[in-house]
Design goal:
about 160 residues; mainly alpha; Serine Threonine Protein Phosphatase 5, Tetratricopeptide repeat; about 60% helix; about 0% strand
Length: about 160
């Protein structure tokens, strides 16, 4: 479950970088957002990239206070970058500091409208984005289908069923 939390957090923070200085909502599709996020991040000073990476690592290892401390420091020098505020929001939220988290999210949204869109959508259904809601159609393969981990291209039937 913690791995899923980290995956969602990393995706959200990664998507956050593409929302900088944009007045429109960021796309939810990773394939659409990733190039923009990479371009935006490429323009950051090396020390900002290193600090965000350190904060993300601390967050992934559930050292939320350390992550929050790094992000708080970054808000002093890079307070115009919504991603920094969004990272602080994620860390404060993980620690249960609701008021501090909300304040950070508001600052992130002011600097980069739509920044919290993916995270808000995941929370609105009450489950992490990586989990399926109850009642979702089954995701198992039909009976007789070879297990995915043991299937090879040679085992697959020809295209067109013939």
């Amino acid at each position: 479950m913690q791995t899923r939390k980290w995956i969602v957090a990393a995706a959200v923070i990664g998507l956050a970088a593409c929302g900088e200085e944009e007045a429109e909502r960021i796309p939810l599709g990773q394939e659409q957002a990733e190039p923009a996020a990479q371009q935006r991040r490429a323009a950051w000073p090396a020390e900002l990239v290193a600090a965000v990476d350190s904060a993300n690592l601390a967050y992934s290892e559930e050292r939320y206070e350390e992550a929050a401390e790094i992000y708080r420091g970054l808000t002093e020098e890079y307070g115009d970058i919504g991603t920094v505020w969004f990272g602080l929001y994620m860390a404060e939220n993980a620690m249960g500091n609701t008021e501090a988290a909300q304040a950070a999210l508001e600052r992130a949204e002011e600097r980069s409208p739509g920044l919290g869109q993916m995270h808000e959508r995941a929370e609105s259904v009450g489950v992490p984005a990586t989990e399926l809601p109850e009642g979702h159609p089954p995701t198992e393969m039909p009976e007789g289908h070879p297990p995915v981990d043991s299937a090879s291209p040679e085992d697959a039937p020809p295209l067109g069923g013939g």
